[in-house]
Amino acid sequence: xxxxxxxxxxxxxxxxxxxxxxxxxxxxxxxxxxxxxxxxxxxxxxxxxxxxxxxxxxxxxxxxxxxxxxxxxxxx
Length: 76
Description:
The protein has a single domain (2-75), classed as Eukaryotic RPB6 RNA polymerase subunit. The longest helix has 11 residues, at 19-29. It has 3 helices and 4 strands. By secondary structure, it is an alpha+beta fold. A 4-stranded mixed β-sheet has the order 1-3-4-2.
């Protein structure tokens, strides 16, 4: 089920951001973890990625106007 979820064409690309890059992203946007939108630990995509609480997830979506849009969520 998890591989099917990650390969579904309707699900945008999700990936866990590693610690050094996570710090750079938070600094770049002047954010703290508690200011980011959240993904719950029981979310199917979080389970498929085997993400843990505090992990930063990068979501890349196709956009008709911007081409590609990047979003960030924190696992709670």
